[in-house]
Structures are given as structure tokens and as C-alpha cells.
Design brief:
This protein is α/β, with parallel strands linked by helices. The protein folds into two domains: 193 residues, 3-Layer(aba) Sandwich (Rossmann fold), CATH 3.40.50; 83 residues, no CATH class. It has an eight-stranded mixed β-sheet, with helices on both faces. The chain has a four-stranded antiparallel β-sheet with strand order 2-1-4-5, covered by helices on one side. Strand 7, helix 9 and strand 8 form a beta-alpha-beta unit. Helix 5 crosses helix 6 and helix 6 packs across helix 8. The chain starts with a helix and ends in a 21-residue tail after the last strand. The C terminus is likely disordered.
């Protein structure tokens, strides 16, 4: 029996909520059945200072994730993806702070949680695979002792049962479990450390998994195995997944929906197949055009014009780099526009008389 089976087995005494989550019986989506989202972010803003006088890193961000859904958050480095994830867990580093909006997890406003309530939630109900995966562990305590303590702390199991679950969790990510259990962090390679972090995040079958670049330090085959494991978990337990990645191949293959961030804003979001086929924001289209096709290697690789990370202080955050911008883009805030059912974008050119962005040809500027 795998570690997922241990947690959902009646022999282990798990509560009824977990067993109910694993039974499907219908092909309709949670949203269609009016099931509340696992995660709901409303108008989230984050500044570098608590009094909102500092630089704004995230602006009026809205995002929901339903049970069993994988939503990918993509965008170049510095766009606000990891900061958003930190806000969800309440782990924003000082002096960053939420300056607006709210974050609801299972209908609870996370800002109202006490420290004990937040500690009980993290690890069991919300698990995170951090970019700094080594920071997930104490370097002078053996890995096995830390995993066992985590299980006992959240589940109340005895040491023997907790050790069995920890061992099986490590085996699921293709590690030599007994050796790793008896190792310190420095005795493992970077890829092994990341797999241990992933095992720790998955073994308690959380309601929400935040995977921040989970395959960064892994080879292609191991990375694929890890993503399959995450897929298996979310289908069996209806775990929601916030998948942060730069790898468009993995995102398009795995995610149900994609949200594209630039300059702290979600500039476009929608179902994966719709977004890939009908992207409307210039930045989204540039990202998709930059994908490599080994069957048809171009003479020159596609690139996004302008200086990476350049963000307009007013109007559209992508205005400084956009080759099809108009005067309004530099000064007027862009409202979220509905392109089709579930597909939204923030671009002044959508539906404008100057020409539909969907039909506009985007070319590289010199």
C-alpha cells in the first residue's frame, strides 16, 4: 500500500472528509456543481512596506482554484509568482506585506488565523514545495527524524506507523528510503534534496499543494515522474494544485487552467487549451511563440522585445515592451475583459476599432 493508500485507508482511522474527497461519481467540474473553491484570492495587492508607500509588487490579483484542479501561474522572473504563493501561506518575508484584498482557504480568511491555527494548517492542509527546497529542512537533524516528527505532529500517529509512511513517501519519489532516512541534508545531492521536499509535501495529502518550480533541480525523467505523482494525488484526493513554472511544456501538458503574470498583474487567464489556441494579450502570445519545436527548429529563436522586467508604472504593465501598444496603454489602467467563457485578458486592444488583437500580427521590435 502506497502512502496515499495509507492516508485514505479506513484501517488508519482517517476522517470521513478524506474518503469523501476520493469518490467522484460525476464528470462535472466543481465549479459547475457550485462547490466552493479551495483557494480564492480577491484583489490581492502586496507592497514592500506595510503602509503601502513602498513599491507595489502585486496589483489587484484575482485567482481561484477548485478541488482537484491544477492552475499554472507563469511569467518571467520577478513577475510576482512566488510572492503570491508566499502570501497564500502567510510567509511573506519582511518588510513585504499585504496592502489590499483577501485570501480565502476553504472559505476561511487566512488573515484571521491565529499562529497555532496557521501552524496546524501548513503541512497538513496546505503543503508547499519551495524554490529553496533545502530551506525546508533543519541541516543538523536527520531527514527521517524530521519526516516522522511532521507526521506525528499533524496526524497523532505512533512512531512506528509514522516511519512506515515516511519511508513509503520517499520510495514514491524514487529515493533509497532507508539511506535517506538516516542521512543529513548535506549528504544528499540537490536533486535528492528536492525529491525529499516533494515527498514531505505530498505525504499528508493536503487540500492545496503549492508547487513552486518543483522540477528545477531534477533530470527530465525524474521530473516527469514527480509531476505524474502530483497528478495522481490530485485525482485521487481532489487536492488543488497551484503550479508555478517556467516550463511551458509541463504547464500545457498538465494544467487545467493557466494564469499569466507580468509586472505583478495577471494579464490573461483561461482554460489551457483555450489560452494556447486563442491567446489575446501580446505577452502571452510572445511566451507561446518562444516555445521550441524540435520538429521545426527556426533559424532564429523567438524572443520578447524590450528589457526583461521593465514594468510601466501606469497603464498596462507590459506597455514599455509591447510592439502593438496605443496611447491609452501608457496611461490608462486596463480592466479585466471577458474574451470567452472562463477566458479573460487585460488589453486595451481587445474589441477596439483599431483592430482585434487576436488578428494582429506581433512582430519583434529592433
Amino acid at each position: 500500500m502506497g502512502f496515499d493508500g495509507m492516508l485514505t485507508s479506513g484501517k488508519m482511522g482517517m476522517n470521513k472528509r478524506k474518503s469523501e474527497r476520493t469518490s467522484t461519481g460525476t464528470k462535472t467540474t466543481p465549479a459547475e456543481r457550485n462547490i466552493p473553491p479551495v483557494l480564492q484570492i480577491d484583489d490581492l495587492s502586496i507592497h514592500t512596506r506595510a503602509d503601502s508607500s513602498g513599491k507595489r509588487l502585486v496589483r489587484n490579483l484575482n485567482l481561484t482554484i477548485q478541488p482537484g484542479e491544477m492552475v499554472a501561474l507563469i511569467g518571467e522572473s520577478g513577475s510576482g509568482k512566488s510572492v503570491t504563493a508566499s502570501a497564500v501561506t502567510g510567509l511573506l518575508p519582511a518588510p513585504l506585506s499585504m496592502s489590499g484584498g483577501r485570501i480565502l482557504f476553504q472559505g476561511r480568511d487566512t488573515a484571521t488565523l491565529t499562529s497555532p491555527e496557521r501552524r496546524a494548517m501548513l503541512g497538513k492542509e496546505i503543503s508547499v514545495v519551495f524554490q529553496d527546497y533545502a530551506g525546508s529542512f533543519t541541516p543538523f537533524i536527520k531527514i527521517g527524524k524530521q519526516l516522522i516528527e511532521m507526521i506525528r505532529r499533524h496526524m497523532g500517529w505512533n512512531k512506528t506507523t509514522a516511519r512506515v509512511l515516511a519511508t513509503q513517501a520517499l520510495e514514491q519519489v524514487e529515493l533509497a528510503a532507508e539511506r535517506v532516512m538516516d542521512s543529513y541534508l548535506f549528504q544528499l545531492s540537490g536533486g535528492q534534496q528536492q525529491r525529499v521536499a516533494i515527498a514531505a509535501a505530498l505525504m499528508l495529502e493536503p487540500d492545496l499543494l503549492i508547487a513552486d518550480e518543483p522540477t528545477t533541480a531534477l533530470d527530465t525523467l525524474t521530473g516527469e515522474t514527480i509531476l505524474q505523482l502530483i497528478d495522481s494525488l490530485r485525482h485521487k484526493t481532489k487536492c488543488a494544485v497551484l503550479f508555478i513554472s517556467h516550463d511551458l511544456h509541463h504547464v500545457i501538458k498538465r494544467a487545467d487552467r493557466i494564469a499569466v503574470m507580468y509586472g505583478g498583474e495577471i494579464v490573461e487567464s483561461g482554460p489551457t487549451d483555450v489560452l494556447v489556441r486563442e491567446a489575446r494579450h501580446p505577452y502571452t502570445r510572445f511566451l507561446l511563440q518562444s516555445r521550441m519545436d524540435l520538429a521545426d527548429v527556426p533559424a532564429r529563436l523567438q524572443s520578447i522585445p524590450g528589457e526583461p522586467g521593465a514594468v510601466s508604472a501606469c497603464g498596462c504593465p507590459f506597455a514599455l515592451r509591447c510592439p502593438v501598444r496605443i496611447a491609452r496603454c501608457d496611461s490608462e489602467a486596463v480592466p479585466e475583459m471577458m474574451v470567452s467563457d472562463g477566458h479573460t485578458a487585460r488589453c486595451h486592444l481587445i474589441g477596439e476599432a483599431q483592430g482585434d488583437l487576436g488578428a494582429a500580427e506581433i512582430t519583434r521590435t529592433s
